């Protein structure tokens, strides 16, 4: 993994050459405690080549600057950690750890993949629902397995929805599941402290993070909804060169008219607009994607977002007796 050996050398360590290890013959089932302690997940299913590049990512200036600084640490690692001596001050910070936080659809996953592409490494993206197991003790094994697999394959390790397993630890432990939750948090922190690669966490709910974990993250990158200028660029970036556009299309006007939307909203709106234009009852040669197609699609998406984000009814615990409303009499009920 980039920067690790140079970082350890800067800390005064001697890095011996790694000799290949002879293969270990398999043991009968149940006779190998080390094997039993390993994750049963097939992590190769979640290892992929990075397809997106930094040119594919359109970010607000502040976010882009932070991403550039992350890449600069890798590019100038020898200068920073050896020649300038920063390795002496960060002897225990072995991992290049990054956290992406912000609203859904703002480019966190896309940027993680673009960073992997810039580093010419694969990305290991294991969904949380695969990491978490209903069996007690399996989730910590899966977490460790992900770190080990990323190291063995020189891959960038990416955890999306990281708040799901990095939330605040429970203080009042009353049952086995509470103990398992706290164990998961502790294992993640321990693995992060020992990891020597590049790891990116992403979350929409950074406020739910355990502070002990958050303090160990090197770079904290905030992703926000795109500005008007960025929205215009995203609209334009989503249009294939062969897509027939009507002369009425104006991306600057779309960006100005529709704010508080994410890049994913725009991407979905473009696809919906193209589908609407394709299904129109006219010859193929006459079909065009119009400004009205884009406007109608993004309006529908905005309305759908409003509906899904409406505040849900919550139940609040109270102390003491709570008076209940009078129930209707049987006579009143029969009259209705």
TrEMBL record:
Residues 94-225 form the AAA+ ATPase domain. Coiled coil: none annotated. Residues 1-11 have a biased composition (Basic and acidic residues). Pfam families: AAA (PF00004). The keyword Nucleotide-binding applies. Keywords: ATP-binding, Nucleotide-binding. Residues 1-38, 317-336 are annotated as: Disordered. Gene3D superfamilies: 1.10.8.60, P-loop containing nucleotide triphosphate hydrolases. GO terms for molecular function: ATP binding. The keyword ATP-binding applies. It comes from the Bacteria. Signal peptide: none annotated. Residues 17-28 have a biased composition (Pro residues). Residues 327-336 have a biased composition (Polar residues). Belongs to the AAA ATPase family. This is ATP-binding protein. It comes from Laspinema palackyanum D2a.
